[in-house]
Amino acid sequence: MPMPQVPFDDRGLAYGDGLFETVLLRDGQPVLWEYHHARLSKGCQRLNIPLPSARQLSQAWQAPPRAALEVLKLILTRGSGGRGYAIPNQVAPRLMTRRTPFTTNETHWREGVCVRMCQLRLGHQPLLAGIKHLNRLENVLARQEWQEPDIAEGLLTDQASNVVEATSMNLFWSSEGRLYTPYIDRCGVEGTLRAALLSEGLIHESRLSAAALSSVERLWVGNSVQGVWPVRELRDAHGSRLAAWPRFKADPLQVAAHRLLGYPGTFLS
């Protein structure tokens, strides 16, 4: 189904005044929907946009599936109107959705990936931290920093030189046998897979400086669509190797995360 044309005065188009969710559909049913809905609700509260009803949202996946795995993208804007940055007196949110077939990258699951540090640093804005708002210019600029096909992701630090996330995934690491993920209280996106792992007590929040990143026991990037990719090599922003990790027979984070997503548990051997 084609996306509807967005009016010229839509505030999401003009100002990034809105939110989005990217949801894995398995056999037509949303995976981790509880966490997606919670993040969307938090974003609506932060931006003061009315939350669509459960019926409105569920209509996005009522059509028969076209593939066993699909990705559903929900875009919610404040709608049209208002004078400049001032919001209209009567807000009429605009909800748009699109479903596309999806294929997992089992090579990344099995062999791991190479990632690099980005030069761009995320700005601190606690009011926007965690939510998936439409203004992703920092991520767009960061993704322009590399073109090498063997680099799967770029890691982003904040103004205090702490690692926060990857350009489109959350970050995880192990230290002394415990699994961690960065705090998302100043900037960054609270991924739904990350939220589910935290809810089950499988990972813990901590701060990690960019300088300490190369000394962690193991490193991963992951999200609720792609699953978890073990990091086998870390490079700096100029392409020089900072660290490398061997493949392991057991991958506790991948097993736990993929159980939540319905993916195979581990491919490393």
From TrEMBL:
Annotated pathway: Cofactor biosynthesis; tetrahydrofolate biosynthesis; 4-aminobenzoate from chorismate: step 2/2
Pfam families: Aminotran_4
Cofactors, names only: pyridoxal 5'-phosphate
Domain of life: Bacteria
Keywords: Folate biosynthesis, Lyase, Pyridoxal phosphate
Signal sequence range: none
Catalytic activity field: 4-amino-4-deoxychorismate = 4-aminobenzoate + pyruvate + H(+)
InterPro entries found in the cross-reference section: Aminodeoxychorismate_lyase_IV, Aminotrans_IV, Aminotransferase-like, BCAT-like_C, BCAT-like_N, Class-IV_PLP-Dep_Aminotrnsfr
Enzyme class: lyase
Alphabetical list of Gene3D superfamilies matching this protein: 3.30.470.10, D-amino Acid Aminotransferase, subunit A, domain 2 (3.20.10.10)
Record-level Gene Ontology MF annotations: 4-amino-4-deoxychorismate lyase activity
EC number assigned by the record: 4.1.3.38
Family: Belongs to the class-IV pyridoxal-phosphate-dependent aminotransferase family.
Subunit note: Homodimer.
NCBIfam families: pabC_Proteo (TIGR03461)
Name of this protein: Aminodeoxychorismate lyase
Species lineage: Bacteria, Pseudomonadati, Pseudomonadota, Gammaproteobacteria, Oceanospirillales
